[in-house]
Amino acid sequence: MKNIYFYSFLIMTGVWLSSCDADEVDCVDFGVTLSNDVQEIFAGEPVTFDFSGNPDYIVFYSGEDGSKYANKDRLRVEIESAELSYEILQQYTRVPYRNKETMSIFISESFNGDYSTIKEDDWQCLSGANGQLHLKVPLCADASGRETVADGMDLTAYKDKKFYLAFHYNAVAASDADTYPRVDVTSLVVSKKLKDGSTSTMNDPKSQFGFNYAFEAITKKTNFSASNTTLLFQPTTDNLKSDVDVWAISQAIDLTAVSPDMGTPIKSLNMKTQSYTYTYNEPGEYTATFVGSNSNAWNSKSMVKEIKILVKENPVN
Questions:
Q1: Could you give the CA distance from residue 169 to residue 166 in angstroms, rounded to a whole number?
Q2: Which helix (H) or strand (E) holds 115?
Q3: Distance between CA atoms of residues 150 and 127, nearest Å
Q4: Angle at the Cα of 248 (from 260 to 254), degrees rounded to 5?
Q5: Element (H, E) at 143
Q6: How far is CA 74 from the centre of its chain?
Q7: What percent of the residues of the chain are helix, what percent strand, and what percent coil, each to the nearest 5?
Q8: Which residues, in sequence order, are CB contacts of 84 under 8 Å at separation 6+?
Q9: How would DSSP label each residue in 268-316?
């Protein structure tokens, strides 16, 4: 009899433990409405979304380019057109380097990705007097030794090809110069118009273009770097007795490749959030999407709520 009681106790204990399984998460109870049932939304004015329920996490997709829930898993797109634009600032240009093309711009479909050996036959010059497109580069012809140029090109012919971009710094040693010119390539942007009417951009020399430096002739390699905004070419005075020949070359660029659209986390665990305010700066139709979820280390449950937003031109502007 004792064995029967003990066995029954084990069964009841097992049922109780399974009903309180720590791996389980609660179902999501979540709702979104426009605050005060607002009827008109104008560009540049904040709009507030009210929440009901209390999910552990909420992520917001505004519906603008780069933040569309429908594109959260998208990795490739169809390109209608593409353009490259850039700015180049050259300064500290001494007399031996004035009215000369210290910087050149190249493109290649045949570069093999080996940054240790640069074969000029693999590259097509796009800039300057001898370049195919005569893209602008600084000449610094006047006594200031400083010049900024801006230019660009149509990349649509490369929409279905992989290619490399390069910026080439080339200066010959001069005995009467106390420094080499400094060159900053900034505002480097590839703008893509997609066949669905949206746009996508590349504007980060380091993380998106993936520029690496190749040193063909140099004494000291410091002061050459790719940041999130700039390509820097600034030979130090250690190089004054030698020629400087340095390339900054992108990784292979595939215009059809894109990063998935990203949402903005607006609520985390143990954080009370009853509303969220956002401002649309451009008129248009948007799908604002909120993803509410409950999760732990083992399981996750989520609920998606969408609200169609019509943003009108602000009559005040």
A1: 10
A2: none
A3: 12
A4: 30
A5: none
A6: 15
A7: 10, 45, 45
A8: 152, 153, 155, 165, 188, 189, 190
A9: -TT---SEEEEE--S-EEEEEEEEEEEE-SS-EEEEEEEEEEEEEPPTT
The mean pLDDT values, 10 residues at a time, for the chain of 317 residues are 43 40 78 88 95 93 95 94 98 96 97 91 95 96 96 96 97 91 98 91 96 95 96 94 95 94 92 93 96 90 95 88
Say if residues 60 and 143 touch (Cβ distance below 8 Å).
no
User: How far is residue 52's CA from residue 37's CA, in Å, rounded to a whole number?
Assistant: 14
Q: What is the pLDDT of residues 190-208, one digit of tens each?
A: 999 999 888 889 999 999 9
Determine which helix (DSSP H) or strand (DSSP E) holds 18, and give its type and residue range: helix 2-19
Which residues, in sequence order, are CB contacts of 227 under 8 Å at separation 6+?
Answer: 205, 206
Residue 243 to residue 170: CA distance in whole angstroms? 8
Q: Round to whole Å and give the CA distance between 309 and 116.
A: 52
Whether the Cβ atoms of residue 248 and residue 166 lie closer than 8 Å to each other = yes
Please check whether residue 92 is in contact with residue 143, taking contact to mean a CB–CB distance below 8 angstroms. Answer: no
pLDDT tens for 275-286 read: 999 999 999 999
3-class SS of residue 126: coil
The single-letter DSSP state of residue 239 is G
- Residue pair 132/213 in contact (Cβ under 8 Å)? The answer is no
